[in-house]
Amino acid sequence: MSQAWAADVVVVGAGNAAMCAAIAAAEQGSEVIVLEISSEEEKGGNTTYTHGSMRFAYNNGEEVRALLPEMTDEEFSMTDFGDYTKEQFFEDVSRLSNYRTDYDLANILAKESYKVMQWLTSHQVKWIPIYGRQAFKINGIFKFWGGMVLEAVGGGKGLVDALHQEAIRLGVRILYNTSGVKLDIANKRIQGIYIREQKQDAYIQCKSVVLASGGFHANVEMRTKYLGPGWDSVHTRGCKFNTGTGLKMAIDVGARTIGNWSGAHAVGGDRYLPNFKEGFQKLSYPFGILINKEGKRFIDEGEDFRNYTYAKIGKEILKQPGQYAWQVFDTKGKRFLREEYEGRSVSKVVANTLEELVELMGDVDHEGFLTEVENFNKAVMDVPFDPNMLDGKGTEGLRVPKSNWALPINEGPFVAYAIGCGITFTYGGLHITKKAQVLHEDTTPIEGLYAAGEIVGGIYYDNYPGGAGLTSGSVFGKIAGSQAAKYVQAEYQVK
Ligand SMILES: Cc1cc2nc3c(=O)[nH]c(=O)nc-3n(C[C@H](O)[C@H](O)[C@H](O)COP(=O)(O)OP(=O)(O)OC[C@H]3O[C@@H](n4cnc5c(N)ncnc54)[C@H](O)[C@@H]3O)c2cc1C
Predict the structure, then answer these.
(1) pLDDT at site 24
(2) 111, 58 in Cβ contact below 8 A?
(3) Cβ-contact 430, 414 below 8 angstroms
(4) What residues line ligand 1, using a CB cutoff of 6 Å?
(5) In terms of DSSP bridges, do strands 79-80 and 53-55 run parallel, antiparallel, or are they unpaired?
(6) Number of H helices, E strands in the chain
(7) Between 20 and 30 A from 417 (CA), which of 75, 256, 318, 395?
């Protein structure tokens, strides 16, 4: 053992959940050390790869504006934020989990979401409205849909930088290239944590540990073991360090697990992009069609706003022959392509006719595709199109319906994007209480052990509402950090 440290609270990980925990503990006077396995340049975990978009409940546009001190009257007048109540947020999490979510945690997530936005704002995180990606401009007004209206300035990187600066200002010490290896526990109480700094083993004596080291999406072996065959070969998005080491550490000291261990957030994106590269996702599918190797559609691309469907589409692509698909758009649909469709490295083919397009795709059944598009076009209902609402412009009589935004694919030039499945994060994790305490297998808390963020299980099953990951990390990170600090204070008082 090369070196021994001491702290009140040790936080494992330096992404959003971890830094919220660190700030909350430091705010309460705790001495905090953060351990991050990556280098400083790569800091921030999956959080760095996000747009920094956060889902939170609000009653009206004024409440959103209160988080945007720099918004002008002119900008506000052309923005319709609508409302998104706590009840709607709670219902979205419940509905998308097929009513299997932990209702206590889902309730806290929804109820605390606006307060945590205020708290983050007080800690120097700045926001901007997500114009374009979450609101289309129609008749001079940006009308938001889908419960996600703000993102951090500078995206995920901006969020991570702001949280790190704030933590440092509050005296938090961050050790990079340092991993949490093993929890030291006696009588079901945290005594400290064994760590590895570069190649050196060390030990930190502490009363409390907050685990915020993400799930296991970047661990091929665990993916295959828990998610099943095929998941070994999917594209891996985001942070390469989220390999389940925090989960294993907790399980090794008897922590209880919960949730959808065979489920994961997985999207459709660029089939040929190497792992861990930014720009994978391709999320404008509601305005086109998705077809498989046989040329057949296989999902309802317009089932709901994309915030409520994108996280389950990767799994559907993985079920297709060859585990791939193509997104196809005509000129009308192309108007709605998000910025991730731009750039030279995007895998796409363009043609003036559908016959030429399928020829260029190369790996799709020609007749199957042409017949499918013809049938789709004939089935489109004559209803007005509106991208800002569930417009009911669906199809009639198809084996696989499209419920909204069904535009016929009939105006060239046409474009098709090669799509594969990409995993973002895993749903199974540690069982925590309302105070973010990690439970032991005997169902009582392991004293001094807390968890937040992706490492927590039981909130999402099968599907996920976009923007809830960061909010959950912030809400439960803040709770975990402040509860850890309170626990430490209580321990010292006893002595
Ligand atoms: C491309 C992409 C886009 C996304 N967009 C959004 C979005 O806009 N909005 C949203 O809400 N969610 C989004 N998500 C999901 C979101 O990233 C996560 O829900 C959230 O960032 C998880 O935060 P976290 O703090 O739990 O984990 P992370 O941010 O992943 O942090 C975990 C940290 O722990 C470190 N670590 C791992 N093991 C150890 C160890 N043993 N010791 C020390 N450190 C360790 C990792 O290096 C990492 O820094 C997106 C994800 C991706 C990949």
Answers:
(1) 98
(2) no
(3) no
(4) 12-18, 35-38, 44-47, 49-51, 53-54, 179-180, 212-214, 237-239, 241-242, 245-246, 424-425, 453-454, 467-470, 473
(5) unpaired
(6) 14, 24
(7) 395
CA-wise closest residue to 241 among 7, 457, 455 = 455
pLDDT at 138: 85
In angstroms, the CA 333 to CA 108 distance is 39
Domain ranges of the chain: 3-215+427-494, 268-422
Q: What is the mean pLDDT of residues 41-56?
A: 97
Summarised one tens digit per residue, pLDDT across range 371-392 is 999 999 999 999 999 998 999 9
278 to 123, 156, 312: CA distances (angstroms) = 27, 12, 20
Give 259 Cα–ligand 1 centroid separation in angstroms: 18
**Which pLDDT band, with edges at 50, 70 and 90, does 136 fall under?**
confident
Work out the pLDDT band at 1, boundaries 50, 70, 90.
low
pLDDT digits over 412-470, tens only?
999 999 999 999 999 999 999 999 999 999 999 999 999 999 999 999 999 999 999 99
Report which ligand 1 atom has the smallest distance to the Cα of 249.
41
Q: What is the DSSP letter of 237?
A: P
Identify the CATH class of 268-422.
alpha beta
Contacts of 226 (CB under 8 A, 6+ apart): 216, 261, 262, 426, 428
CATH 3.50.50.60 assigned to 3-215+427-494 = yes
CA distance 148 to 202: 43
Nearest to 54 by CA among 160, 146, 151, 120: 151
Torsion sign (Cα): 229, 263, 43, 201: negative
Count the Cβ atoms, other than its own, within 10 Å of residue 154: 15
Could you give the 3-state DSSP secondary structure of residue 4? strand
Q: Is 308 helix (H, G, I), strand (E, B) or coil?
A: helix
Q: Could you give the C-alpha distances from 412 to 354, 428, 455, in angstroms and in order?
A: 8, 44, 46
Cα 486 from Cα 28, distance rounded (Å):
8
Give me the DSSP letters along 332-387.
Answer: HHHTT--GGG-STTS-EEEESSHHHHHHHH-SS-HHHHHHHHHHHHHHB------T
Tokens representing 483 are 């509860």
In a mutational test of the pocket of ligand 1, which residue from 50, 177, 196 has the highest number of ligand atoms less than 8 Å from its CB?
50
Separation of 343 CA from ligand 1 center, angstroms?
A: 25
Q: For residues 289 and 356, give the distance between their C-alpha atoms in angstroms, rounded to a whole number.
A: 17
Ligand 1 atom nearest the C-alpha of 468 is 11
Residue 388 CA to ligand 1 center (angstroms) comes to: 30
